[in-house]
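Why should sequence recovery work at all? Because a backbone constrains its sequence more than one might expect. Tight turns favour small or flexible residues, buried strands favour hydrophobic ones, and helices have their own preferences. The token representation captures these environments compactly. In the example below, the structure is given first.
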């Protein structure tokens, strides 16, 4: 009988944790409902100047590396291809909607250790692009399969060649 009660207590605790996470996710979505809509991807894009594969980590409010944007499926991590095209930055995610950052919206680019709750061991584990949309600053993180290309990306984005 003691084992059954202990098992039920553990199951109840697990269910309470899942409910708390779901409730927090929904509360964050409601809080972020007033954010400006993300830019639509243009119908056609020019040839990529840079392209790399990896994982889209997420988008946060700039300056707050743990405040992940949860509106729509923007908060979902996914394998992705990051492309620098003349129109901006295209993030084609597997199993999620694509994300587009217009070239004129890019404010900064850097390598970083963490974003959206993901922390890397090295200081240069993530490529983070800071961009502005209707007066609101965002940081979008990408973990590339080849981290040696980060310097080239930062130079292209910060140098105004985006």
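From this structural description, the recovered sequence reads:
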């Amino acid at each position: 009988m003691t084992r059954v009660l202990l098992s039920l207590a553990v199951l109840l605790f697990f269910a309470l944790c899942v409910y708390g996470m779901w409730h927090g996710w929904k509360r964050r979505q409601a809080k972020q409902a007033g954010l400006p809509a993300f830019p639509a991807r243009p119908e056609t894009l020019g040839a990529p100047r840079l392209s790399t594969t990896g994982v889209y980590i997420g988008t946060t409010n700039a300056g707050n590396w743990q405040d992940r944007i949860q509106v729509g499926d923007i908060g979902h991590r996914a394998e992705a291809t990051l492309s620098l095209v003349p129109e901006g930055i295209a993030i084609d995610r597997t199993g999620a909607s694509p994300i587009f950052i217009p070239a004129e919206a890019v404010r900064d680019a850097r390598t970083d250790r963490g974003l959206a709750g993901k922390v890397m061991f090295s200081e240069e584990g993530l490529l983070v692009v800071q961009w502005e949309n209707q007066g609101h600053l965002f940081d979008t993180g990408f973990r590339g399969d080849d981290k040696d290309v980060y310097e080239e990306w930062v130079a292209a984005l910060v140098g105004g060649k985006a």
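A few observations help interpret the result. Residues 2-31 form the longest helix (30 residues).
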